[in-house]
Design goal:
The protein is α+β, with helices and mostly antiparallel strands and 350 residues long. It has 3 domains: 2-166, no CATH class; 182-243, SH3 type barrels, CATH 2.30.30.60; 247-333, Alpha-Beta Plaits (2-Layer Sandwich), CATH 3.30.70. It contains 10 helices and 10 strands.
Length: 350
């Protein structure tokens, strides 16, 4: 038996291999117990919680810590053996690569969680998560690029000349792509300041439509006539944007004109008639109504009311009902609407 344990392969005895295997199996057993008892309870707790922080921590454990535990079992067990210098160097490189990947995964998960939380607080909906695609890809690229530089440096690659060359090249690229970089910074302005979001109905100059996509360089809007409008982000941040999705109330001003032959009693009655019609409409709030001016061919009244909410179709339904109600009420009272007319007086010579 002792002769078997003393049998040597690659400068390690069978007993040393058995010890390494026992250490490996012991650590794997601990990882299994962690998954069964600790991780399972964390999943149950996260399912009952309303916050997203526990879900992020759970994702980090599953994507980062568990692979680290598995690799630790291999690393610790292998270090109990007599390894060649080349094998030890390979193990060291594998350790650096794995730790770099784990740290990058943890950083990207934390950054994505912070951005998603802030965006959803600002937008009051989950629509903001769609905007994380563009900025998430950009952040991942930057973090992975930094991680690659760190990894090459720790592997003995001299990157000072490469970094200097990239710096000079970066300046040249920045000068050649000022418009693109301007749109990129404007994207960050839109992302964090939230003047509008996906699904909002906006008006920019004489163009209007629903925001479909907010990209790193351009924002796409679906116009009312069906075509897609493409704006650069810089154009939007430099323009006055009307966001009707944020509207809480819609102010409506309209005017009526009646003929000069209308009696004094009817003139006094018209504001009350219109007020009653508006107040009977659900979702409408009457503000004021006045005999406003003497026109060229009509006596002009001005009315103002508010429609609760930003739905344009609902506003038009309410306004249509008010117009029909006014038309019916004026017909019952014998009040005549005015229209452009001229009266000609002819004197007959004697």
């Amino acid at each position: 038996m002792q002769s078997i344990l003393d049998f040597t392969i690659f400068n390690n005895s069978a007993q040393a291999y058995a010890t390494a295997l026992a250490i490996f199996m012991g650590i794997m057993a601990l990882v299994y117990l962690f998954k069964v008892y600790v991780l399972a309870r964390l999943k149950t707790w996260a399912a009952k919680s309303d916050t997203q922080l526990d879900n992020m921590l759970l994702g980090i454990i599953q994507r980062a810590l568990l692979p680290l535990f598995y690799y630790s079992a291999i690393y610790i067990s292998m270090n109990t053996l007599n390894l060649s210098a080349r094998f030890e160097r390979g193990l060291e490189i594998a350790t650096i690569v794995l730790l770099t990947v784990i740290v990058v995964r943890m950083l990207t998960a934390i950054i994505k969680h912070v951005l998603s939380t802030q965006l959803n607080k600002a937008s009051e909906t989950t629509v903001g998560d769609k905007q994380l695609n563009g900025i998430g890809s950009l952040i991942n690229f930057i973090v992975w690029a930094i991680a690659l530089v760190f990894l090459l440096d720790n592997m003995g690659v001299k990157i000072s000349a490469v970094v200097a060359g990239l710096g000079i090249g970066g300046i040249a690229v920045a000068l050649a792509a000022q418009a693109v970089l301007g749109d990129l910074f404007s994207y960050f302005v839109i992302f964090f300041d939230k003047p509008f979001g996906v699904g909002d109905f906006i008006v920019v100059g004489d163009k209007m439509g629903v925001v479909e996509h907010i990209g790193i360089k351009t924002t796409r809007i679906r116009a009312l006539t069906g075509e897609q409008l493409v704006f650069s982000n810089t154009d939007l941040t430099n323009s006055r944007v009307q966001n009707f999705k944020k509207m809480e109330e819609r102010r409506v001003l309209f005017k009526l004109g009646v003929v000069y032959q209308t009696s004094q009693e009817h003139l006094k009655l018209i504001p009350a008639i219109v007020k009653q019609i508006i107040e009977t409409q659900e979702g409408a709030r009457f503000d004021r109504g006045h005999f406003a001016a003497y026109g060229d061919f009509s006596l002009n009244f001005e009315f103002v009311y508010y429609v609760i909410g930003a739905d344009y179709n609902r506003y038009m339904d309410i306004h249509q009902a008010i117009n029909l109600g006014i038309f019916e009420a004026f017909a019952e009272q014998g009040i005549t609407f005015a229209y452009p007319t001229q009266t000609m007086y002819v004197n007959q010579a004697s």
